[in-house]
């Protein structure tokens, strides 16, 4: 039975799971009930919180399923959050692009790769849905105006299945257009402060602040931001949470994973705070895998944020060689997934004082778009060297072992067999690439906090679980705020798949609930 | 005892007034790092540059009926004078190498106040693009 008696006393929340018991307890306030709402300022059939891949897909989906009086809010003064600035690649097998490129792939292989990286901690049912139903969501995006450009292989995937439209904004912007065409409302600078429940424990609306002024300061605690005017929005069929992750929240992420110190860099936009997930925890919403926060190793140690060198770095992991300058030798299979790549770099970079050197020659660098290469060089994150000696001097590389290692590497490429790390050398235009022809190009990878694997626990239809083991009527969630899909570590491009696919499911579920409410 | 308290209050009052005058004098020369005070008045939220020369008043930009509802969101009123996004895009087309700050592929018609502040001078460059795009040609584009 639901115990919806309002808890007047402050309640202490202790995190579940091993290894996290020592973290500071989160103080929780009581839930907000309908009787605490002074008046409903506006009424909608459904509200989506967050405007990234998941929120945008949920909006279009609920309107596809008949809802019209719907609203999407975002606390930021821009739309799309991390999605808008992400690489935005969609991992799936069986597309027309894979067929054009002659790539042999199937859902079972996709599942295998995903579970391997997730150390089998993933919810297998959700993974199967992603691998088998993802193609439908890919085609749905195409129908909604997304134009795909290419397919490539990203770390941890055994074949090329990451489909890119250019950047994440080339997915969310067509969806925004569709939302507006269909009459959905979009509001920026509106932050959700509370979920409002009725006496049965069903979600019926939310308390928000309009004209919220986000403070663009990485050290600022969002809880201290009191800007904006409080309003109450009724949501007849409930709300969809698509608020994303908390990679930019210095305090909260460290409570989840003590290794993530405040100085750790992140690829996330500043809005990726723990503001909503903390509220959900206070409302006794069930979370899973909160301790798994991914750092990504394709970014440069020489850029403060996502930066530009990643275009070079991702190619160089496929066509170049990475060494520890102190030993002059390789230390990992360059094309491993994010988690293993990050761990290998963190194990050798001496707290960010001895960055690895990743380099290609003039043939390998042709795999990088020239504009991306130039921008990386302009940002002082990629360097060009006319000779190996110049590069050795610049990075103080241990010369003798390095030259020996390079010779060995080139032999491996030629024989197609990496005796040290078992790397499969990728082909570019039909041929593998050695590192022999000057000039040489180098960058220094530096891991940055990228994705929160954990989050709210949901059903495959995106209904949200209460800690009591039942789902909360009227509460749905999709995207990075949810957990369970990726387990220990997310493979690149699986997030866009996750967000779009489950965003659509959440939209369908809330539309179904609306129809039920109207009927009864 | 009461007299002592009165003296202290008077001295405090004079001190505060004096500091306020100093602050007001400074603000006529330079905009503050962040706008001052909770109350939305022309004194607390001074203008600079062309906005000042034109003698703009609060209601020229803020469309809300009650001053207490003012925010930095201009609801498009910047474009009453600055034309449209196409115009500003053309004005900055030759800056920033191959990246035009007003033609972001990430955000459609980004709100002006994300970068531009009329009542303050941020300590660091508020060019949003620079948060990710650190190339020199972008870094040197300072927000006016």
Short description:
The complex is a heterodimer of chains A (520) and B (144). Chain A has 520 residues and is of the alpha/beta class. Chain A has helices at residues 53-64, 81-85, 96-100, 107-117, 124-143, 169-181, 250-256, 275-282, 310-319, 338-348, 370-378, 388-395, 399-415, 494-519; strands spanning 11-13, 26-28, 32-33, 42-44, 46-49, 70-74, 89-91, 150-152, 162-164, 185-188, 191-197, 203-210, 229-235, 239-241, 287-288, 293-296, 321-324, 329-330, 357-360, 382-385, 440-443, 448-452, 455-456, 463-465, 471-477.
Q: Would you mind describing this structure in some detail?
A:
The complex is a heterodimer of chains A (520) and B (144). Helix content of chain A is 31%, strand content 19%. Chain A has 520 residues and is of the alpha/beta class. In chain A, a hairpin with a 5-residue loop joins strand 11 (191-197) and strand 12 (203-210). The two termini of chain A are 22 Å apart. In chain A, 53% of the residues are buried. The model of chain A is unreliable at 1-28 (pLDDT under 50). Chain B is mainly α. Chain B has a domain at 45-139: Flavocytochrome C3, Chain A, domain 2, CATH 1.10.1130.10. In chain B, 36% of the residues lie in helices and 0% in strands. Chain B has 6 helices and no strands. Chain B has helices spanning 2-29, 49-53, 58-61, 79-82, 85-91, 136-139. The longest helix of chain B is centred in the first third of the chain and has 28 residues, at 2-29. Chain B is globular, with a radius of gyration of 20 Å. Classes of the chains: A alpha/beta (520), B mainly alpha (144). Chain A binds chain B through residues 77-80, 84-85, 166-170, 173, 176, 188-189, 211, 213, 216, 227, 229, 269-270, 303-308, 371, 375-376, 378-381, and chain B through 69, 71-73, 97-99, 105-108, 110-111, 113-114, 126, 131-137.
